[in-house]
Structures are given as structure tokens and as C-alpha cells.
Design brief:
By secondary structure, the chain is an all-alpha fold. About 70% of the residues lie in helices and about 0% in strands.
Length: about 160
Amino acid sequence: MALMRGLVDGILDGSIQYSTDVAGGMTQGLLLYYMGASANRPNQTAFALDYMRKRLNRLKSYHGLDSWPAPVARYYLGEMSFGELLAAATGQQDLSQAIDVARGDLLRRRHLCKALFHDGVKSRVQGAEGQCLTRMRECYALENPLIEHEWYVARYECEQAAA
């Protein structure tokens, strides 16, 4: 968590000028939120939400709010429904249709992976651990999108739940 917080702080203060996504480092904020939620550290989740808000405000003038994974941050901040997040990820609001689309399209599978994972995290924060694990299983059940941190963390979550 300290490493992820350092990355977020570096993006904010400009000492880190390159981020891992076109949304200007949104991925680091999303992962910090997961870490804070899973460790029951509300100060970190609040900081991560504030960071996401700042990144979204910056995006409005550069790339627009559709730059992935900005829709995931918008979902956390209550600006989108889960169906709208699925549509942003895959073009489909229905989960089964979104999964079908993602099977044949790597980029949409990557986006769906993040959407499912972070819906699970949101469920965890709301006290719905069963729904969280359902989403983690759905995320992990996707064919490995290779470069999405969330898929690997979902695998870990599933393994821990089964142990």
C-alpha cells in the first residue's frame, strides 16, 4: 500500500510524469482504493477517491472522460451505474452479453476485467463480501488478459476464499 501511495503522490506532485494508462495514472488510484478497502483503511480509500476526482477533472480538458480506465473511477464516484460501466467497457449493458463480447476482443476483455474487479471492490466496501467474491470469480473466469493487474489480484482473492 505504501508503494502504491508513493506512486499516486508522485503523479500528483509531478515527480512521476509517466503513468500506465491514458487516463493519467487512474490505475494507481484504483489499485490504492482496492488496497485500502481490503485492509480496512478508510483514510486510504478516501485519499484514493479524492485522487480519482482530481484525475477526472484533469482529464476533462485533455482526453475526455471516456479514456480508459476513467469510467471505473466515475463508477466509484457515483457518476455511472454498473450497466453504464459495462457499456463503456464492452458496448453492452447486460453482463452475459458483455462477457460474450469480451471473449472475442482482447481490449474489451481487459476493460471488462477491470469493471468486474472494481464492482467487486465496491461491493466489499458496502459490506457485501459475497457479491465481491462473485465478481472476483467472474473476473478470474475471463481468459487471462495478460497485462491487467486486476485479473491476477482476482485470482488471488479466489484462491484465498477457497482456502
